[in-house]
Design a protein that fits this description.
Radius of gyration of chain B: 19 Å
Order of helices and strands of chain A: EEEHEHEHHHEHEHEEHEEEHEH
CATH class of the largest domain in chain A: Alpha Beta
Strand content of chain B: under 5%
Structural class of chain B: mainly alpha
Keywords (chain B): Membrane, Transmembrane, Transmembrane helix
InterPro entries (chain B): ABC-2_transporter-like
Oligomer: heterodimer
CATH architecture of the largest domain in chain A: 3-Layer(aba) Sandwich
Protein name (chain B): ABC-2 family transporter protein
Organism (chain B): Streptomonospora mangrovi
Helix content of chain B: over 70%
Distance between the termini of chain A: 33 Å
Number of helices of chain A: 10
Structural class of chain A: alpha/beta
């Protein structure tokens, strides 16, 4: 299928000036190096990486506010920097830490302004606003000045503002940052629905692995400016195999358990954590035979550990 | 075009919300006008004519200046853009399918329109109530004064826009803003009418863009021959030329900034 986002050998170097003025030295720093990927229409892709890995730099090149130093990039068939304004009419962008809304005015005013900004026909705008108001439950605070909104409400307002022109691609930079569990869930469910019903392509960066697990069938991990992984969630586990953990609750505190096929990594009173590297059934049987056990649970590695291993391994 | 009208409307509504700030500004303008006028009256008591200005002319300029201070930001208080460049929020501005300079201009015109009604008119009325002012007699000069006000707003906006834009290259425009806070009031004729400066200095200051914000509008109200070209029309042309030049420079630098300069912040 034709890709809606295409990056090939994408790179960005910055020049940073260091030191006091008379002996200031200039140094070239690569924020992004040789990043290539394609995103097909309708995909939901998570773009992960530690702080400073190059996530935001990549996003800025995709949306046309930063010119790449190397490689090429196309979004919705356009070259972002050259066609920034035309591209802006076809994509929606939300920065979790920044807002496009008018701080002192009712949310409704900012949403009304987007009609002229994106030249949306009046009827289409009214219909989409009604839909978004319902799905994002904006009704109760449409008339409230933006500065008085909670972070979760403001985020929903920003999402609505980014979607009123029905963009094909939605780019989200940390859309759930700082939100409580209820707000996070609301945003995730909304994005899933948007993707399912409209086929909107979604690319999001996040540090919240709950976002990834709920939303993304595909993840890309960037580290040190290079793409360290690109594939399905399951593949992520395979590339950085993380051991499962056996949590053993003993009847009484004891010395660290010594058993073949596992290694005790942590002891806290009667509870011990064993990192499994052998057959779990055999280890459990052995532990139960050697000790008086109150409870045993087997824990799958969560995505956080997996990603941590990818970051740490480089 | 429709989008900029909407932005203008939003800015108008936004500033109409700041009632306390408006009242405080009005009070400050009126009080500073009184102080400034009394100082100049003392000066003119010693010398009734200075470079073609009488005491009434000088006091009129004081209240024209104070009335202009609402819509025309002579002091060069930074546009929101300056802070947005520093913090990286400007990314959001560059993402709109609208010209950033036109966007911020529409906002500033909205702010100015509100200030004309709720700052300029009342401030000037205070001046009229307290002092004898020289008012234009012909309707045409009133119209010219209105046009001069609009052009002064444009010059003030473009100057502040350029100060803010400097942040793209130097990272933080606060130093520029501090410098502008001194240069603006002094070179515009706000602190003292430029006629009170030595001729050589006044000659230079009159040619600079800052004079288009206070000195030229004041002389248009007064109908002075010291205007560029010696006429009201000459004064308007001077203002329009600076406004056009600065707008063109602003548009050019906006394109440069958007193309070459990395947006700050993660």
């Amino acid at each position: 299928m034709e890709a809606v986002i295409e990056a090939e050998g994408l790179g960005k170097d910055y020049t940073v000036a260091e030191g006091p003025l008379p002996r200031r030295r200039r140094r070239r720093v690569s924020a992004v190096r040789d990043v290539s990927f394609r995103v097909a229409p309708g995909e939901v892709v998570g773009y992960l990486g530690p702080n400073g890995a190059g996530k935001s730099t990549t996003l800025k090149m995709l949306i046309g506010i930063l010119a790449p130093s190397a490689g090429r990039v196309r979004v919705a068939g356009l070259e972002p920097v050259r066609a920034r304004t035309r591209l802006a009419r076809r994509i929606g962008v939300v920065f979790g830490q920044r807002t496009t809304l008018w701080w002192d005015l009712p949310l409704r005013d900012s949403l009304a302004l987007t009609r002229h900004l994106y030249r949306v026909p009046r009827a289409d705008h009214a219909r989409r606003l009604a839909e978004l108001t319902e799905v994002l439950e904006l009704g109760p605070f449409l008339a409230t000045p933006v500065r008085q909104l909670s972070l979760g409400q403001r985020m929903r307002g920003d999402l609505a503002a980014a979607l009123l022109h029905a963009p094909e691609v939605l780019v989200l930079d940390e859309p759930t940052i700082g939100l409580d569990v209820v707000s996070k869930t609301a945003i995730r469910e909304f994005l899933l629905r948007l993707n399912a019903e409209r086929g909107t392509t979604i690319l999001l960066t996040t540090h919240d692995l709950g976002d990834v697990q709920r939303l993304c069938r595909r993840v890309m991990v960037i580290d040190g400016g290079r793409l360290a992984f690109d594939g399905g969630l399951a593949g992520l586990h395979a590339v950085a195999p993380s051991p499962r953990t056996l949590v053993v609750d003993l009847a009484a505190p004891a010395a660290p358990i010594a058993v073949a096929g596992a290694r005790t990594v942590r002891v806290e009173g009667p509870r011990q954590w064993l990192e499994l590297n052998g057959n779990p059934a055999r280890v459990i049987a052995q532990v139960a035979a050697d000790h008086e056990v109150a409870d045993i649970t087997l824990r799958e590695p969560d995505i956080e550990e997996v990603v941590h291993r990818i970051y740490a391994g480089r | 075009m429709r989008v900029y009208l909407s932005v203008f409307g939003c800015a108008l509504r936004r500033y109409s919300g700041y009632r306390a700030a408006t009242a405080a500004g009005l009070f400050t303008n009126s009080v500073f006008g009184v102080i400034n006028a009394l100082v100049l009256l003392a000066v003119f008591a010693a010398r009734p004519q200075i470079n073609g200005y009488t005491a009434i002319d000088a006091v009129t300029q004081v209240y024209v200046a104070q009335a202009l201070l609402g819509p025309v930001d002579v002091i060069g208080r930074p546009l929101a853009l300056a802070e947005r460049i520093r913090s990286g929020d400007v990314a959001v501005d560059l993402l709109r399918p609208a010209h950033p300079m036109a966007w911020f201009l529409a906002q500033d015109l909205g702010r100015a329109a509100f200030a004309v009604v709720f700052r300029s008119v009342p401030t000037f009325c205070v001046g009229l109530a307290l002092f004898r002012l020289a008012l234009p007699q012909e309707p045409a000069r009133w119209a010219a004064a209105g046009l001069a006000l609009l052009l002064a707003v444009l010059v003030s906006f473009t100057l502040r826009y350029l100060y803010a834009l400097a942040g793209f290259w130097i990272g933080d425009a606060r130093g520029v803003t501090a410098l502008a806070g001194t240069v603006g009031p002094l070179c515009s004729g706000l602190v003292l009418p430029l006629v009170l400066f030595p001729d050589a200095v006044a000659g230079v200051l009159r040619a600079l863009p800052w004079s288009a914000m206070v000195q030229v509008p004041a002389e248009i109200v007064l109908g002075k021959a010291t205007l560029p070209g010696g006429t009201v029309l000459g004064g308007l042309a001077f203002q329009a030329a600076w406004a056009a030049a600065l707008l063109a420079l602003g548009a050019l630098l906006t394109a440069r900034a958007a193309r070459r300069v990395a947006v700050q912040g993660g």
